[in-house]
Specification:
It is a single chain. The protein is built from two helices and two strands; from the N terminus they run ααββ. With about 80 residues, the chain is α+β, with helices and mostly antiparallel strands.
């Protein structure tokens, strides 16, 4: 049988498991760190995608000639180059 002492605070005596406050604090820390990690990864990845648009521009293209459009799936930017 599965030991669920973490979820219910122990068996009848409720002795060996951590308190409810510790469990709630641990859950909140895990959720917040996950959200911060995902946001950081998205920010860094999207910045790299946009920088690639400028780095891979054809010769003779200026920064003003590069248009980037956000794309959701897969995450990144679509690049368009206006050449005179």
């Amino acid at each position: 049988m599965i030991n669920n002492s973490w979820a219910d605070g122990g068996y009848e005596d409720r002795g060996p498991a951590p308190s409810r406050r510790v469990r709630v604090a641990t859950t909140v820390v895990i959720i917040l760190s996950t959200v911060v990690g995902v946001a950081w990864f998205a920010k860094v990845g999207l910045d790299q995608s946009r920088a690639d648009c400028y780095a891979n521009a054809p010769a003779g293209t200026t920064v003003a000639d590069v248009t980037t459009t956000l794309r959701w799936l897969p995450p990144g930017y679509d690049c368009e180059y206006d050449q005179p």
